[in-house]
Design brief:
The protein has about 140 residues and is mainly β. The protein has a single domain, classed as Nucleic acid-binding proteins (OB fold (Dihydrolipoamide Acetyltransferase, E2P), Beta Barrel). The protein has one helix and five strands. A five-stranded mixed barrel has the order 1-2-3-5-4.
Length: about 140
């Protein structure tokens, strides 16, 4: 498989799921690993000579991000909503397979290293409270 760097915006069209896996090889071999997965697309436009834009076919993706903590995976999953525009960085690979109808199909899979929401995105409300310093001996 040929992995290519990916860094672009995508629009979520299917909300995320969280699944637990136990890899057989790699850094997390034998350890519980939690996968956040959602479906997204990258809208495509072409600028015409007159300055206007023409909408082209979108590119569709399955976005996956792997975590060692179930809590972290669930936190991401609960904040990603259908219709959100996200910045995704990672690696993308095309996976070919045969569909149920017998036709050859291709799936674009992004293994995300980072996912971020634009703070100026319409419909997004953000509140932040600085965590209080923990005293010595207090658990994390």
């Amino acid at each position: 498989m040929d992995y290519k760097p990916f860094s672009n915006t995508v629009v979520v069209f299917k909300e995320p799921t969280v699944n637990k896996i136990v890899p057989k090889s790699g850094q997390r071999a034998g350890k519980d690993t939690f996968v956040v997965e959602f479906k997204a697309y990258h809208p495509s436009f072409e600028k015409k000579q007159d300055g206007s834009f023409e909408r082209k076919d979108s590119v569709f993706f399955t976005v996956q991000q792997f975590f060692g903590s179930e809590k972290t995976a669930n936190t991401l999953a609960q904040h990603v909503k259908e219709g959100m525009t996200l910045e995704v960085r990672g690696d993308c690979v095309e996976k070919s397979f045969q569909g149920r109808d017998g036709a050859s199909k291709t799936e674009n899979i992004i293994t995300a290293k980072g996912i971020a929401a634009s703070l100026t995105q319409p419909g997004l409300s953000v509140s932040y409270e600085k965590p209080k310093a923990k005293s010595k001996g207090q658990e994390r």
